[in-house]
Amino acid sequence: MDDLDRRILAAWMTDARRSLRDIAAEVGVSPTTVHERARALRRRGVVRGTVLDLDLAALGRGVQALIAVRVRPPSRANIEAFRDWVARLPETVGVFVTSGRSDFIVHVAVASNDELYAFVIDRLTARGEVADVETSVIYENLRRPDVHLGADA
């Protein structure tokens, strides 16, 4: 990835709905160049798609938590089975397979503290391979709309 790719991505990350023509004007190259670069970035898997940024509270899922989960025994089969299962649950926003004390960090969004409690007790700890859970309620979620792309971005 060269400097032009980084400048295109930096401009694009501010609003994924922007036209490539607008991005071309901002970075100072032709629209054709930006279209070709954008196509190449997608083909190489650098840009995987665009997503909606949903307000989970407005959707009735205003209680969010990060749940650290440890599975035992820590075998590949247990890790992959738990990962695949928890990723399919409707409460799950994201799943991170981690190293260290926990094997997973699971980001969930639910309607209430009662739902969070039921999720942890009735769903997570009911699984035989789950040895330990630690739940941290998210008070506020601040996400950067961009990612630092390296030099000159």
UniProtKB/TrEMBL annotation:
SMART domains: HTH_ASNC (SM00344)
Pfam families noted in UniProt: AsnC_trans_reg (PF01037), HTH_AsnC-type (PF13404)
Gene Ontology molecular functions: sequence-specific DNA binding
Keywords per UniProt: DNA-binding, Transcription, Transcription regulation
Name this protein carries in UniProt: Lrp/AsnC family transcriptional regulator
PROSITE patterns given in the database record: HTH_ASNC_2
Taxonomic superkingdom: Bacteria
GO cellular component: cytosol
GO biological process, any: response to amino acid
Domain HTH asnC-type per the UniProt entry, residue ranges: 1-62
